Backbone:
């Protein structure tokens, strides 16, 4: 019987996956169609601008009269449609980028970001990470562009990594990292901060960025018969390498790079498999002097980046409720960066 046939279940599984993919494409397609319609209405409004505000008021009233069940045609929304068409004059670019974002996200981008280059950067990041409007707003308010795209980052990636991995590693870093889900307390020790980061792993992964898979904290390594423990260990699915994160609740000290360099050697020699790139180190300090960091990294031959981190007093409730679960992040990561069989054996994403 088919119900007992393993091959049937394989076929059924493939069919289900195709249906789900088609459903997602239909939703995405519907959004593109709706935003293209909004853009076209915006162009009509621009073309009749000489009629003044009364034109938009009349248009809103008459659309509602003709389509009483239709939503989204208020005076306010029609005004945003005009702004949408003004902001993105090229319809072909529109359909491949911003039309794939929810309308609410587009309103936020238009309201909060005037600079074209900066806005385009957030559009790309939104498409990569699938942020909802609450998360997008939070990222803008925390200055993600300033911390990631144009920050003066201190690392030795160009010297220690081949291109294009060095550029990808550079893009991955932020300075500073903001852990707004960890309560600020001057007396907090490193292990307490680390514990809170792990306890809030979904929030932590969101701040680290796309592609990070959590392997473990206080990760045990045995070298020369002695025990060593890495603060936080990740595998980056895009860079195809392990990333060792060391947390210091003090200002940067040159000796920290020696300790991290040792951990990178140990991971490369004990965990790294064929197909993995060189392990990267990320040192997070309470504060740093860039000149001292640059001197400390000059003779280090393994890839290390040094950034500051900041704690804030609370996570806004609306953001806490809107954040994706660990499972949601895992699905998105795996959908974007399909690991090879070997890569899957190397990474235990979540404990």
Residues:
């Amino acid at each position: 019987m088919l119900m007992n046939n393993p091959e049937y279940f394989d076929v059924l599984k493939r069919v289900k996956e195709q249906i789900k993919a088609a459903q997602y494409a239909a939703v995405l397609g519907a959004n593109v169609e709706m935003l293209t319609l909004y853009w076209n209405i915006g162009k009509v409004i621009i073309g009749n601008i000489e009629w003044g505000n009364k034109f938009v008021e009349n248009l809103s009233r008459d659309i509602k009269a003709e389509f009483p069940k239709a939503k989204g045609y208020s005076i306010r929304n029609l005004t945003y449609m005009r702004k949408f068409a003004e902001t993105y004059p090229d319809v072909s670019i529109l359909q491949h980028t911003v039309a794939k974002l929810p309308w609410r996200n587009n309103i936020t981008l238009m309201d909060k970001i005037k600079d074209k280059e900066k806005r385009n950067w957030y559009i790309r990041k939104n498409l990569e990470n699938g942020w909802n409007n609450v998360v997008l707003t939070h990222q803008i308010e925390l200055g993600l562009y300033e911390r990631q795209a144009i920050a003066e980052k201190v690392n030795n990636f160009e010297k220690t990594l081949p291109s294009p991995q060095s550029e990808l590693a550079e893009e991955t870093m932020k300075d500073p990292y903001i852990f707004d889900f960890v309560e600020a307390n001057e007396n907090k020790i490193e292990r307490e901060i680390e514990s809170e980061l792990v306890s809030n792993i979904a929030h932590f992964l969101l701040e680290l960025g796309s592609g990070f898979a959590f392997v473990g904290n206080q990760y045990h390594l045995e070298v020369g018969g002695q025990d060593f423990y890495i603060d936080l260990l990740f595998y980056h699915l895009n860079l195809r390498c392990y990333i060792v994160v060391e947390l210091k609740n003090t200002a940067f000290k040159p000796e920290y790079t020696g300790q991290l360099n040792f951990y990178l050697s140990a991971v490369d020699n004990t965990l790294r498999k064929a197909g993995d790139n060189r392990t990267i180190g990320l040192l997070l300090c309470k504060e740093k002097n860039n000149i001292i960091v640059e001197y400390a990294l000059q003779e280090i031959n393994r890839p290390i980046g040094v950034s500051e981190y900041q704690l804030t007093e609370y996570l806004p409730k609306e953001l806490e409720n809107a954040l994706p679960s660990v499972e949601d992040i895992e699905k998105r990561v795996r959908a974007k960066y399909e690991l090879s069989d070997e890569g899957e054996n190397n990474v235990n994403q979540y404990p």
Notes: The chain has two domains: 2-147, 152-346. Residues 134 and 319 are 6 Å apart (CA to CA).
